[in-house]
Design brief:
Blueprint lengths: L1 H17 L15 E4 L13 E2 L8 H9 L16 H6 L4 E5 L3 E6 L5 E5 L16 E7 L2 E7 L19 E10 L2 E9 L8 E10 L13 H4 L17
Parallel strand pairs: 5-6
Antiparallel strand pairs: 1-3, 1-10, 2-10, 3-4, 4-5, 6-7, 7-8, 8-9, 9-10
């Protein structure tokens, strides 16, 4: 009887935990603040635990050529501790802390302690945006879902660990929706007409963590680079614009 009572109590506690509502800020918006742990997504085309990919990516001919010629051992930029870029940082198997205000939605990455601000105060992307590692992000609310658009990511980065490519025409649309107290649904849609014939999407679930971010340094003990397992990364030459 004691065992049965214990199991009933455990089930009741679990049900109560699942029933905890989405917390909200004073303005009524869902509170996305906190440390979140998502699945490791080295290949965005695959489907696995807590994530669903797009299995047959719709490459353009130049995109397929780039993908099929990629060799991570031949100077992958992350092996030289260069910034991963937004997509690959979110894909990494490390926690992400969200800091949310009325003006900013900030992603604090444990991986190499990078950060990325998203402007949610109604501003537009700046004109003549210079490409950068993480690009420029603006967001707006669609009901309880935060929709973020990122542009201006230079083509030195890759979308994921296996090396899916993109061009500087990349437009990433990511969404964040807190479904209950402990879970957050995330989607990312890749829209890049130079590399893919149509947009494609990856979906995943993040889980709330009670832990804190810790220090991360790619530069320390980087054996792959120091011992010659991979080549040192150098920026590729600029692409020539067609006349």
């Amino acid at each position: 009887m004691r065992v049965l009572a214990f199991l009933v109590a455990l089930a009741s506690a679990a049900a109560a935990q699942e029933a905890r509502p989405v917390p909200r800020l004073p303005d009524g918006r869902p509170d996305l603040n906190g440390v979140w742990v998502g699945p490791y997504v080295p290949d965005m085309s695959r489907t696995g635990r807590n994530q669903r990919g797009t299995s047959d990516l719709p490459f353009t001919p130049p995109g397929r050529k780039d993908w099929e010629s990629y060799d991570a051992a031949n100077g992958d930029y992350t092996g030289s501790c260069m910034p991963f870029g937004l997509s690959r940082s979110i894909n990494a198997p490390y926690p992400i802390q969200i800091v949310q205000t009325n003006k900013y939605f900030v992603l604090l990455f444990e991986v190499n302690n990078w950060f990325h601000p998203v402007f949610i105060d109604g501003r537009d992307h700046p004109p003549d945006l210079e490409p950068s590692w993480f690009g420029h992000s603006t967001g707006k609310w669609d009901g309880d879902t935060l929709v973020i658009e990122t542009i201006g990511v230079h083509d030195w980065t890759r979308l994921d660990t296996v090396g899916h490519p993109h061009s500087e025409k990349l437009r990433l649309v990511t969404t964040y929706r807190r479904t209950d107290f402990d879970h957050l649904t995330f989607t990312v849609t890749v829209d890049d007409p130079e590399t893919y014939t149509k947009p494609w999407t990856n979906e995943r679930t993040f889980t709330r963590s009670n832990g804190e971010l810790i220090e991360y340094s790619c530069e320390e003990n980087n054996k792959d680079l120091r011992e010659g397992h991979i080549k040192f990364w150098t920026p590729p030459p600029p692409k020539k614009n067609p006349d």
